[in-house]
Amino acid sequence: MSDNLDHDVAELWSLLFDIVTDGEKRLAAHLEAHQITPPQFYVLKTLSENGGACRIGDIARDHHLTNATMTGLVKRLEAMDPPLVQRKRSATDGRSVDVSLTPDGARRFVAIQRGLIEQLQAVFGLLPDEERRDIIGKVRLYFTIFSQQFPIDDLS
Fold first, then answer.
1. Sheet holding 85-89: strands in order across?
2. What average pLDDT score do residues 121-134 get?
3. 89 has pLDDT over 80
4. Alpha helices in the chain (DSSP H)
5. pLDDT given at position 152
6. Phi-psi region for residue 28, left (φ > 0), alpha (ψ -120 to 50) or beta?
7. Share of the chain above pLDDT 90, in %
8. Residues 6+ apart with CB under 8 A from 45
9. Is the pLDDT of residue 12 over 90?
10. What number is the average pLDDT over the span 104-117?
11. Half-sphere exposure of residue 155, counting CA atoms within 13 Å on the CB side?
């Protein structure tokens, strides 16, 4: 049993590593075609998931970056032509800066996301419904068990 477990763990580790590195390369290439970097995309994604606006400190915290690093990312998004985000002092806390998606930023995010989803649909569409549901169920089970056994808060 132990030999099989060791082999299976090694094979899963290798597959997960390949999936992550391949996904990062494909994402970077897709984003490059949209003239945006992966960190900039994650800022747009975070804003989109938060109704289009968020405090710069909250975005930095979500991505485990310093406020200064996040400010640089946001400034580059703001300097694009057309600007993808805008910054302004918080109306409720003068020390904080609120960042919001511009209409162009929202459109760019949707276009990028649509392209990524279309790629996934093209690949997943090659599989029968039952196999797709089986894959999703097994991946969900893996992540559920893994996150219960090793919560992120316990990793630091």
1. 53-55, 97-101, 85-89
2. 96
3. yes
4. 2-33, 38-49, 56-62, 67-79, 103-124, 129-149
5. 78
6. alpha
7. 85
8. 109, 113
9. yes
10. 95
11. 7
Query: Can you read off the two tokens belonging to residue 105?
Result: 């930023």
Identify the CA nearest to 71 among candidates 98, 46, 94. 98
User: DSSP string spanning 110-121?
Assistant: HHHHHHHHHHHH
What are the phi and psi torsion angles at 97 (to 5°)?
-115, 130
Q: How wide is the angle at C-alpha 22 spanned by C-alphas 28 and 47, nearest 5°? A: 45
The pair of three-digit structure tokens given for residue 140, joined into one six-digit string:
């969900």
Sign of CA dihedral 44, 49, 55, 60: negative
Name residue, tokens 């640089």.
72
Q: How many CA atoms lie within 13 A of 51 on its CB side?
A: 3
Q: What is the mean pLDDT of residues 91-112?
A: 90
DSSP state of 99: E
3-state secondary structure of 55: strand
Phi and psi at residue 151, to the nearest 5°:
-60, 145
Q: Mean pLDDT over residues 43-51, rounded?
A: 96
Q: Please say whether the dihedral angle defined by the alpha carbons of residues 22, 24, 25 and 27, taken in this order, is positive or negative.
A: positive
Site of tokens 């169920």: 137
Q: Which of these, 121, 113, 83, 114, lies nearest to 101 by C-alpha position?
A: 83
